[in-house]
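User: I've been trying to design a sequence by hand for this structure and keep getting stuck. Would you show me what you'd pick, starting by listing the structure so we're on the same page?

Assistant: Good idea, let's start from the same input. This is the structure you sent:
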């Protein structure tokens, strides 16, 4: 009995399979690669329930005053080259704890706070900050800062910046940035879902806190360069951002650089 010859069928099957693979490859090659800039701007056009702003370096420029106060404290402590400068965005007590013995943390923190409260010169509103804040409804905006409350209010007053009703300071949570607690607290006070909020920050520690809280992030160049800011969108200045109000939140757009 002769066994049927299936060679022709096998060859035909292989050719058909090859044609399918070729078609799939052609389709995949026809799909454009994602543009990096478009991926970075994924926050644009999305509706956010709330906007959570850092303060120092984001809304107001207090860098010179901060650096002067911390350098004076470091000089008083005799640190010399051991003090490499302020780590912007981190709570002051944590920075101090990295530099002094545990029994000196409280007194050192009090001294730094005293110096910072007495030096509010050269503090100014950053471009676009007041306009952006004022374009957002009260129930959808907050300031989240690593400053103590008194210092926060002093810097805002010195700059002439009107604070929103919701302000979360370092005293309001057990853990500060880069832990998510401050942004979670702000969203909770606003009655919003943190995962539907966006954080605007100038420092890596603050952006890390925002991501940990489940928020989208916008990084603002200033105290750090653009390549140091790991954010969904990085802008050179807040005056590039625009807000459009929707029933369920706000939508960001970006204006061309002039």
């Amino acid at each position: 009995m002769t066994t049927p010859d299936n060679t022709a069928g096998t060859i035909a099957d292989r050719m058909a399979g090859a044609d399918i693979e070729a078609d799939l490859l052609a389709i995949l090659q026809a799909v454009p690669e994602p543009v990096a800039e478009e991926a970075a701007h994924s926050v644009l056009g999305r509706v956010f329930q709330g906007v959570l702003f850092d303060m120092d370096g984001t809304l107001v420029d207090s860098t010179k005053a901060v650096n002067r106060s911390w350098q004076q404290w470091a000089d008083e402590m005799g640190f010399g080259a051991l003090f490499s400068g302020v780590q912007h965005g981190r709570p002051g007590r944590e920075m101090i704890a990295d530099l002094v013995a545990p029994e000196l943390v409280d007194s050192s923190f009090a001294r730094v706070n005293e110096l910072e409260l007495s030096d509010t010169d050269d503090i100014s509103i950053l471009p676009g900050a007041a306009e952006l804040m004022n374009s957002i409804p009260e129930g959808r905006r907050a300031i989240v800062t690593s400053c103590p409350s008194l210092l926060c209010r002093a810097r805002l007053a010195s700059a002439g910046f009107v604070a929103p009703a919701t302000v979360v300071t370092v005293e309001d949570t057990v853990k500060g940035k880069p832990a998510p607690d401050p942004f979670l607290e702000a969203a909770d006070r606003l009655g919003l879902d943190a995962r539907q909020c966006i954080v605007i920050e100038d420092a890596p520690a603050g952006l890390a806190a925002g991501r940990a809280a489940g928020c989208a992030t916008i990084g603002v160049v200033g105290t750090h360069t653009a390549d140091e800011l790991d954010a969904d969108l990085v802008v050179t200045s807040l005056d590039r951002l625009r807000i459009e109000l929707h029933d369920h939140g706000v939508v960001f757009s970006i204006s061309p650089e002039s």
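That's my pick for every position. To get oriented when you compare it with your attempt: The chain has two domains: 40-62+123-254, 63-118. The chain has a mean pLDDT of 85.
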